[in-house]
Design goal:
Elements (H helix, E strand, L loop, with lengths): L1 H29 L26 E5 L3 E3 L1 H13 L3 E6 L3 E4 L4 E3 L2 E2 L9 E4 L12 H12 L3 E5 L3 H7 L6 E2 L6 H6 L3 E2 L4 E4 L2 E4 L5 H12 L1
Parallel strand pairs: 1-3, 1-7, 2-4, 3-6, 7-8, 8-12, 9-10
Antiparallel strand pairs: 4-5, 11-12
Helix pairs in contact: 2-6, 3-4
Length: 220
């Protein structure tokens, strides 16, 4: 009898323990979960560390009188519209074109520095004033030696030829300059535009736009 009572007591205790355990589990399951929100560290905005590209600069060399309108105003406009700063040099403080249009001169030729990415010699009947000009030759040679763009249009390539930088180079010019270019060692092409390394030459006003775009392509 005592043994039966003891067994019954053990069974009751087991049932009670089981209920307590189940209740505890149910309690845990029903406990509202705490949502943990992990705050992501904010990304600090930083400014672009790259410095803006230094503006490109092109020097235009024009005759004080009788420079060719299209050969100067068209390339100047195209380069400026594409972010290239232009500086005009001549032998006087104001220059006059073939069509009697005035052009402001930024710097006298004698005061030109070497601080340019391109040097452009403009043609027209008056451009022969630079054929044997020592300062013009110096500007062309310095630009060439420093691997800058050196460009000339119409009769102006003769200035480059006389400066000695077309020797062994392909070049074009107005047809009247063919013999002079060849006598100075140039390989005359007669094309509208000729590019040989950093030297760009063009044969006349009809090529002015392409001349400007070719210079621009070299610069950028």
């Amino acid at each position: 009898m005592k043994k039966s009572i003891f067994l019954l007591l053990i069974l009751v205790l087991a049932l009670v323990a089981g209920c307590a355990s189940k209740t505890s589990l149910n309690s845990l399951e029903n406990t509202p979960k705490t949502e943990i929100i992990q705050e992501m560290p904010k990304t600090q905005e930083t400014e672009n560390s790259k410095e803006p590209k230094t503006a490109l600069k092109a020097l235009f060399v024009i005759a004080p009188t009788n420079f060719k309108d299209e050969e100067y105003f068209t390339p100047k406009k195209i380069l400026e519209e594409n972010g290239v700063k232009t500086v005009t040099a001549s032998l006087s403080k104001e220059a006059t074109s073939v069509n009697n249009k005035k052009a402001a001169v930024d710097v006298l030729l004698e005061d030109v520095s070497k601080d340019f990415d391109a040097v452009v010699f403009i043609g027209g009947p008056g451009a022969d004033i630079y054929f044997n000009n020592k300062k013009a030759h110096e500007i062309a040679v310095n630009a060439f030696n420093n691997k800058k763009v050196v460009a000339a249009i119409c009769i102006a390539p003769s200035t480059l030829a006389n400066a000695g930088i077309l020797n062994g180079k392909k070049a074009t010019a107005f047809y009247t300059e063919k013999n002079n270019l060849e006598s100075k060692g140039a390989i005359y092409t007669g094309k509208d535009i000729t590019v040989d390394g950093d030297i760009i030459t063009a044969n006349g006003p009809e090529a002015a736009s392409l001349f400007a775009k070719t210079i621009l392509d070299k610069l950028i």
